[in-house]
Amino acid sequence: MFPNVRPMRRIISNTSLGRALAGTSALALVLALAGNASFAGGPKVTTPTLTGFAALPAATFVPGSEPSGSLVTGNTNGYRTPFVVRQHVERAVTVVRDAGETLDRLVGFDVESIVKAADGTYWIGDEFGPYLLHFDRAGRLLAAPIPLDGVVAPETAARTGVVATLGSSKGFEGLAASPDGRYLYPLLEGTVTGDPAGHLRLNEFDLRTGAYTSKRYTYPLDAPNLAIGDAIAIDKHRFLVIERDNGQDVGAVIKRLYVADTRDRNRDGLLDKTLLVDLMNVANPKRLGGFGTTFTFPFQTIENVVILDERTVAVLNDNNFPFSTGRTPGVAEDNEWITIKLPRSLDPDKRVLR
């Protein structure tokens, strides 16, 4: 992923804030920031239907972040370099001492997913280890980064000399929490060396023991060249997963929300997948956002999904500022927040809605 400004980053997913947001109140959070927003309620629908749209202008940034960052090069889609507001680098850097271990060099993390635990601490999924990271509310790392046995990203391989078994930036893109708060389920974005192409590992991590369990599931991508963008729990068996291609604008084809079930009813050893929403074909009868009656979400990186209520989900893109141009060629895209009403209830565990 490109380092970029992410004022609406994944912190919304899997947190008490994210679970508390619902319907119009979810849009209200964005309305305060957005340059363009609209909402439509209404009765039950027969197909996934757009009920809310908001856009956060591309150049929006976190106040105070402008002194940090690094100069970027390449096609910046109308933004002159060096930026007046320099990019906020998506990196946490620390030296681990509290865990009884001191790293002999600073370690960079590519944080992509976050869960707030019942005790108010935060668990974060990293792509460069890949590691699970445990922070307190002040942002202090509480223990040494927790690796996944047998899975090594190139960034860690370069630092440790261990052979890489995963592609670059293909670590924990998704991180779900079980409704009872005991388990974490980090989902890799890429296939581990030796696994069938397009098969992604979903491991179970026990927060009571602070260790991975023996349970491991396999999420099958529709094709090996696709990727996942996020994963959150619906209940103790099911997850909501974003699956996407790498295209944008007219090149965007596969942008989907799937329900993935661990019960493996067909006994093929893979998570059962059911298409929930095709994000390239969402009904928009109210023409929200000034779009036509069929709404598309044609972004390269769609990286956030939130369950707002039994029949409503919110989806957000990552605009990779200033590089992605999902709506208009040559124009850096905004961060967009959309809400979609579903024709049938997800029947989520009530605890994921808190």
Q: Characteristics of this structure?
A:
single chain, 354 residues, mainly beta, 5-stranded antiparallel sheet, 4-stranded antiparallel sheet
What do you see in this structure?
The protein is mainly β and 354 residues long. The protein has one domain (10-353). The protein has 3 helices and 21 strands. Strands 1-2-21-20-19 form a 5-stranded antiparallel beta sheet. Strands 5-6-7-8 form a 4-stranded antiparallel beta sheet, with no helix packed on it. Strands 9-10-11-12 form a 4-stranded antiparallel beta sheet, with no helix packed on it. Strand 5 and strand 6 (122-126) form a beta hairpin. The two termini are 31 Å apart.
Class from helix and strand fractions: mainly beta
Biggest sheet, open or closed, and with what strands and sense?
Answer: 5 strands, antiparallel
Low-confidence stretches: 1-34, 84-106
Strand runs, count: 21
Alpha-carbon distance between the two ends: 31 Å
What is the overall number of helices?
3
Averaging pLDDT over every residue, what do you get? 83
Compute the number of structural domains: 1
Radius of gyration: 20 Å
Large-scale geometry: globular
Per DSSP, what share of the residues sits in E-state strands of 2 or more residues? 25-35%
Order of helices and strands: HHEEEEEEEEHEEEEEEEEEEEEE
> Biggest sheet, strands in spatial order?
1-2-21-20-19
* Helical content class: under 10%
